[in-house]
Design a protein that fits this description.
CATH class: Alpha Beta
Number of strands: 9
CATH topology: Ribosomal Protein S5, domain 2
CATH architecture: 2-Layer Sandwich
Structural class: alpha+beta
Number of domains: 1
Largest sheet: 5 strands, mixed
CATH superfamily: GHMP Kinase, N-terminal domain
Helix content: 25-40%
Radius of gyration: 22 Å
Distance between the termini: 81 Å
Oligomer: single chain
Length: about 280
């Protein structure tokens, strides 16, 4: 077998440096204690959000959202003529959603090639946005929504729904209502609204249990209708109903922030008043 003489070869046997780190025992926090970012368990507290529209000049509309350390950017292109010419697309338009993680967004560096998880998130994003977009206004055309996660600190799908709705509104796409997303992780008798990445992934190491699960809700706030709902884990019927209600309350808490962001975007685009 040929040997690459220019490559520095490592030892045949090696050990992880983590073996020499002294173990640290962490006791799980009781449900009554505050979370790491200061929020309380079992309360409808979402992370402070920063949002802005119109950052991508090449796109028809764009939006950027920061929720804690979760950062996303969305670009909307179209409406443009669709490539498919079947009878369905002749009557109504198509909405195409693409969800991707930047290679540097997660703890483990990824690739630009879309994986199975990103495809599932793209489908969830499409299902949440499609009921809100007036596709019958754009026959024989398609609207493309591209979401890129710049930093993943949990609740990426729910914040991607909100960011995409902002970008669609910035692009002037006709919609029945904005779409707001909120996520929740059920931890036994209490819940964690808008969970961070450690809160999302920490409970799954011990396996599933009673009332352990995650819920993501997409809401049309003005119409008070749910456009998307995803749930995994094991939760009772009453627990799931309360989790959905908590997510809806979290969406209503985000609504004023999104409204102010759109108003600022409209004022920036408005022509200056003539004296």
């Amino acid at each position: 077998m040929p040997v690459d003489t220019k490559r520095v070869r490592g030892p045949d046997e090696s050990q992880s440096p983590l073996l020499f780190v002294p173990p640290t025992t962490k006791t799980p926090a009781p449900p009554s204690e505050a979370r790491e970012d200061g929020r309380r368990r079992g309360q409808a507290d979402v992370r402070p959000m920063f949002a802005r529209c119109g950052l991508v000049s090449q796109a028809k509309g764009s939006a950027y959202i920061e929720a804690g350390s979760t950062k996303l950017i969305c670009s909307v292109y179209g409406p443009r003529e669709t490539e498919r010419k079947d009878d369905v697309d002749m009557k109504t338009g198509r909405l195409v959603c693409d969800f991707r993680f930047a290679p540097f967004s997660c703890q483990k560096r990824g690739a630009w090639i879309q994986g199975s998880g990103e495809k599932d998130l793209s489908l969830g994003l499409l299902e949440s946005l499609q009921p809100a977009v007036c596709l019958h206004k754009y026959p024989r055309s398609q609207v493309e929504v591209n979401v890129v996660v710049l930093e993943n600190d949990g609740s990426v799908l729910s914040h991607a729904v909100t960011c995409a709705a902002l970008a669609l509104a910035d692009a002037g796409i006709e919609m029945y209502d904005l779409v707001l997303g909120c996520a929740l992780r059920q931890d036994g008798p209490t819940y964690l609204l808008d969970p961070t990445f450690p809160e999302e992934s920490g409970a799954w190491a011990a396996g599933y249990g009673d009332n352990q699960g995650r819920v993501s809700v997409a809401l049309l706030p003005s119409l008070n209708q749910v456009s998307g709902l995803q749930s995994d884990g094991e939760m009772g019927e009453d627990t799931l109903v309360e989790a959905v209600r908590a997510c809806i309350e979290g969406c209503h808490r985000l609504y004023p922030v999104i409204q102010q962001t759109l108003l600022k975007a409209v004022r920036r685009k408005a022509p200056p008043a003539q004296a």
